[in-house]
Amino acid sequence: MTEFPALAVLAAEEAELQLPAFSSDDAWALGCALVATARDGGLPVAVDISRNGHQLFHASLPGTSPDNDDWLARKSRVVQRFGHSSLYVGQRSRENGTTAEAEFSLDPARYAAHGGAFPLLVRGVGPVGVVAVSGLPQVDDHRMVVAALRAHLAG
After folding, report:
1. Strand partners, 127
2. What sign results for the dihedral spanned by CA atoms 60, 66, 68, 72?
């Protein structure tokens, strides 16, 4: 079983992974990079990127189903509501001895505080969108997004 990262680690990722700006071209580049990584690893994932509620990129690779789209939407709603990664929100509740669903009265049919959705943070602005992956165990979904954001910032 994959161990959940500590809340401090997740907070540090959000502090680190802030973008200078985020355009439709950035969404395309980030989405294509995630798809390339998934294809190279034969990973059955769906990818979704939105800015201010506007879907800019979506891809569903072999092995995914409409369930993955549901997970993407539910995890993305957590990011939109709390301004933190979906794994951060879930881990904060776990470290408080509860679940995000119980702590915040979240409807599990609409929200999933499971790893894989990350805020698109523009430095000096804050969250402007969400990048999400679904199809792997939740910590692996999260790590895939974090690695792609790091590469995008380094690029």
Report:
1. 121
2. positive
Q: How far apart are CA 125 and CA 145, in angstroms?
A: 21
Nearest to 133 by CA among 87, 82, 84: 87
The CATH code for residues 7-154 is 3.30.450.150
Say whether 134 sits in a helix, a strand or coil.
strand
Tens digit of each residue's pLDDT (9 = 90 or more) over 36-62: 999 999 999 999 999 999 999 999 999
Q: Would you give the distance in Å from CA 62 to the centre of its chain?
A: 20
Name the residue ranges covered by the structural domains of the chain: 7-154
User: Whole-model pTM above 0.85?
Assistant: yes
Q: Which regions of the chain are under pLDDT 50? A: none
> E strands of 16-106, at which residues?
18-19, 46-51, 54-60
